[in-house]
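Protocol step 4 of 5: obtain the predicted structure for the target chain.
Materials: sequence only (see below). No template structures provided, no constraints applied. The aim of this step is simply to have a reference model before the mutagenesis design in step 5. Sequence pasted as it appears in the construct record:
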Amino acid sequence: VLRVFLTVFCFIFIVSAFQPVLAYGGGINTEEMPKVEQESFLESACINVFETEPEKREIISFDVNENGLIAIGTEINNNKCICVYSENMIFQYRISFICAGAFGFEWNGNDIEIYFVRSNADVIVDRQGNIKSVRSYLDDAEANDYFIHVLNVTERNINGAKYTLKTNSEKDVFLKPYSFPILSVSKTGEDEKILYDVSEKYSKTNALKTFGDVFLISFVLIILAVNFVKLYRNFKSKKAEKERRFQEMLRQANDNHRNQK
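Step 4 output (structure tokens):
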């Protein structure tokens, strides 16, 4: 039995020795990213920290750390932003970066760990904007589950408080999928408190945007319809002209035939 145990142990040790070294950073398996790739990635990502609060937008995802700091992720196309607020929603700072595609993030102590989906990059940024780590995360089933069940959840329970992302069904008809205008918090024995709410703003903005899109589409359809009618009339006119010429040819042929008789 001892010999079998030693054989199995040696086999596992030898196999694991030749596997890439992985770190379990924030719940996702990561591995070293080559230095050249790190430099190229950071140059394209343009990660910066600013002290000015940007215009509030609908929330893509959020996280709360043990100290009560609230991080809220927003985006305008490829321009992403993570704004950090105190427990009382006093703005602290923001991390702005460029990301072509989806992203996720979470607190890692007092730092923020950002996952760039398309690049499979895992970056840790501190309060001053220092890049503390750049690694590659493995695009596997575990990472996908982590995104769904941890990074992109709409409810978090921290220090006895429940933070929840919400929509306003009456105002958010035009809100894009997987985004939320409201963040609330509720504690035992207290009424629910709204921490962040842009539903009024984005219901109007998105309604105007949708109206503009509908107007543009209608304008294009009208132009296409007018052109179609012109083409159809032109086609009928040419067809009638061909028919007239054919009938004229028949009439002349008949006249010639009668004259020969």
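Step 4 remarks: Residues 11-25, 171-175 have pLDDT under 50 and may be disordered. The helical segments are 2-17, 35-45, 141-151, 199-260.
Proceed to step 5.
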